[in-house]
Amino acid sequence: MARRRRKSNVGAYALMFLAFAGGVAASLRPWETFQQQKQTQKELQKEVEQAEDNRAALLQQEAATKSSVAKEEMARRNGYKKPGEEDL
User: Are 71 and 65 in contact (CB under 8 A)?
Assistant: First the structure.
């Protein structure tokens, strides 16, 4: 009788091992998907931060170009002169 009991324990251990191995195998695919989504989220977050920085720079540039002094400086950098003005 002891031999039969031992045999059933081996079967139970084998079944537990197979169940554990199946659980691990089944969880690999979702884990890979999670890692890919995490990487994509990081990349998108960087893009959002860059877009926000770009927007802030454009807002500063827009504010700077609205003043008449800034407009004149920009025109002179681009080679424009006032009517009747000569090069120095």
Answer: yes
Instruction: Tell me the HSE value of 54 on the side-chain side, using a 13 A CA sphere.
Output: 6
Per residue in 2-26, pLDDT (tens digit) is: 555 455 588 788 888 888 888 888 8
- Report pLDDT digits (tens) over 43-77: 999 999 999 999 999 998 888 778 888 888 888 88
The token duo for 49 is 């931060």
Amino acid at the residue 23: G
* Tokens read off for 15: 């079944």
Q: How far apart are CA 18 and CA 24, in angstroms?
A: 10
